[in-house]
Amino acid sequence: MPEFVIGGSVEITGHPKKEYIGKCGKVIYVGSTPKGVNQPVDVKLPQREFEPYYGVALDDGGEVHNLKENQLRKL
Fold it and tell me: Is residue 20 part of a domain?
């Protein structure tokens, strides 16, 4: 079960582009990807463990996609 839901308020706590760290927004997308795969896929593959990823609309008007749970904090 994903920790974050669409519409939930979050803060970005980790991202390769440091300018996103500390920005706040709302979750706009929840998807899943096989563990250990960097690019999201929306097709469920048999016998694979999946982890959620998220898209966030930032309060300042931008969007950030493909975030994992360990890159976000609930507000």
Answer: yes
- Is position 58 within any domain? yes
Tokens representing 7 are 């519409």
- With bands split at pLDDT 50, 70 and 90, how would you rate the model's confidence at 44? low
CATH of the domain at 69: 2.30.30.30
Mean pLDDT for the chain overall = 86
Convert 15-68 into a string of H (helix), E (strand) and C (coil): CCCHHHCCCEEEEEEEEEEECCCCCCCCCCCCCCCEEEEEEEEECCCCEEEEEC
Is residue 26's pLDDT more than 90?
yes
